[in-house]
Amino acid sequence: MAEHAMENMATICSGAVGWIDRSAMIRPLCESTPARGIQMKKTLGLLGLVVMLPFGLLALAGSGVAAAGGSTTFDGNISCNLQGTVKVSPAITPTSVGPYKATVKMTNNDCIGLDGTSTTQNGETIISSTESVKFTVPSTGAAGCSTLLSGGTIAIPAITVKWKGTSKITSTVLGASSAVIGVGSPNSTLSVTGAVTSGWSSPATYQISLGIDTATLAAACTSKKGVKSFAVNDLSGDNLEIGPAF
Question: Quick check: 16 and 191 in contact, CB under 8 A?
Answer without folding.
Answer: yes
